[in-house]
Amino acid sequence: MGIPAWVWFTVAAVAGVAGFALLATDRAQRTARNRERRRWAALRGWQFEETDHVLPTRWEAGAIAYYGTGLARDVVAGSTFTADGRRQVYVLDHETGGKVNSVLVGVRCRRALSVVIELWLSTVPFQRDNDKMPMPDLLGPVGSRYAFVTDVPAARKVITPDLIDAAEEIGGDVTVVWMENDWVLAAAPPNSSPARLERLLRDVGELADVIDPFDPDPSEREEPVAEDDEGGEVYRPSFGRKP
């Protein structure tokens, strides 16, 4: 005896309603996140952009290598003070395959490292198959994380007790922290609140201070981007353009 057509119709209708509800929920969450991120940027005097296709191409390691380049959503760009001065920052939702996999927080250093260092939680399946950026060499435990590096001797000089202490403050909800060129970045969970991102920015800023300490020699300091009428530094980000 065959199944009546009305049963198949009912099943299809229920599936359609469930799918619509999921889409509506996702859209509502994205809209709420967009508004929250936009308000946060406005309060900090930072710039906001809904979508940027080029920004994720600045980096190749860490979460970018693991998930793919993707695109940036709800991007906040500006600068913030750390113990060693003002630094450029980005906060963005990293989206691949139509899904936000993490919130990336990046703090820029004054000078680039010659080695890429990735610090992964031991609970994360961090192995990856990426021809552009294959998994670096395993250096070993660094606090509660495992370090993967592109140059072991160079990395040993960078990974000091101060760096380990700073990395331990990042938090167990951050799957990977990595140092690439002149950036220190971290991947936080999707839907991380502005309050959590503020704390993460401070912690990542401390890591940047460790690997890129203030140089008291004025001749070696980087020139400010611009100055306001009172002589303070002003950061004017350019979305979508590599430095």
UniProtKB/TrEMBL annotation:
Record keyword Transmembrane helix present: yes
Transmembrane parts of this sequence: 6-25
Alphabetized UniProt keyword annotations: Membrane, Transmembrane, Transmembrane helix
InterPro entries the record matches: TtfA-like_core
Region (Disordered): 210-243
Superkingdom, natural source: Bacteria
Protein name from the UniProt record: Secreted protein
